[in-house]
Amino acid sequence: MEKESLWTKEFLIISLISFLSMLIFYLSIVCMAPYTTTEFNASASTAGLASGIFVLGSLCGRLGAGRQIGIVGANKILWIGLIIFAITTALYIAAFSLELLIINRFVQGLGVGIVATGTGTIVAHLVPKSRKGEGIGYFSLSIILAMAIGPFVGIMLMNVKNGFDIIFILNTIIAVLCIIIYAFVKLNLPISKQESEEKEPEQKSWIWKFIERKSLPIAFIALLVGFGYSGIMSFISFYALEINLVTAASYFHLVYAIVAMLSRPVTGKLFDVKGGNMIVYPCLIVLALGMLLFSQATAGWMLLLAAGFIGLGHGNFNSIAQTIAVKVTEPQYFGLATSTFFTLMNFGFGVGPYILGFFVSTYGYRSIYVSSAILFVICIPIYHLLHGRRDKELLQSSD
């Protein structure tokens, strides 16, 4: 039997938009803490807030977009997100105070949250049901590639004259490019307003208008994993300086991405055949081992080996968890499921740097990374209770 088509023009263009928008995300988030401490003399906790509030804005954007997609459609939602994203990206140069910077980062986060929900929902509709794990796995490679290039370029540009200004200008050009690219895309996706209004009448609370209940368990695990991983995203530059491994740290996300990209096609196909448990349990174990090695790194090879473990664990967990969130829901709720998953994951990313920043001065970076490794181990039984024990049953019922 011939496989259903996956590599369509629309799939490729939406994946490119996802890559470019996430490139801005990772390029800016790795430099924001150093930028606030350099330009505004901010404390470690405040620098963590400036870095993480972008993700909290993204959280709010995803919540609103997930609900509105069922009313106005993913096409219009993506247009709105791209416009907000481009305007706020251009406003960084005008942020002359820490307060204005934080406000702009929050609003920009709204934009990227809307964009990410729009692209994720569109792809969930474009990918054939029989190839969900494989298709979403390939799509999420755009995020992995951005995760590699963004921090790598960001760290390099921070070390040149007027590096922060160059980063802001580059981000603005990329944001405008996203709008231009999307103008050439024509999509005809279903609007499920009627189904959304009729969904489970017994759900009287307003919160269920913004949260997809079936995807909530796996999204909660993603929140915990995101919290644990956020310390690397926001504080790797400071940690590298402290342990004198700046050069090796500049290649961390590159190694992460290479390992994730090489393994992603395999794990995606394996998910379609065997289900989520076959991937998630090993990913959490490998992620914990990688974080523990990262926390104890004393040489460049140790840091980069940790990057490989973390890329294998974290990179594949995110893809498979997102696929689970979509597969346990009905097609008309893909937007809400995508929003729910990334909202909780981004919440972990957002509050992580702020909370961890309070403990850095007292316990140090190594201690917070050890704590993250322990958290990933704790996620294993939590995953089993919330989803793992019913994985086969839920995935088969969704086919």
Task: Please provide a written account of the structure.
81% of the residues lie in helices and 0% in strands. By secondary structure, it is mostly helical. It has one domain: Growth Hormone, Chain: A (Up-down Bundle), CATH 1.20.1250. α2 packs antiparallel against α3, α3 runs antiparallel to α6 and α5 packs antiparallel against α6. The protein starts with 8 loop residues before the first helix and ends with a helix. 56% of the residues are buried. About 3% of the residues have low confidence.
List keywords for this structure.
single chain, Growth Hormone, Chain: A, globular, 399 residues, mainly alpha
- Gap between N and C termini: 18 Å
Average pLDDT across residues?
84
Task: Please mark out the parts with pLDDT under 50 across 5 or more consecutive residues, or reply none.
Answer: 193-204
The major pleated sheet works out as: none
* Global structural class: mainly alpha
Question: What is the CATH H-level superfamily?
Answer: MFS general substrate transporter like domains
Question: What's the total count of β strands?
Answer: 0
Proportion of residues in helical segments:
over 70%
Can you tell me the overall shape? globular
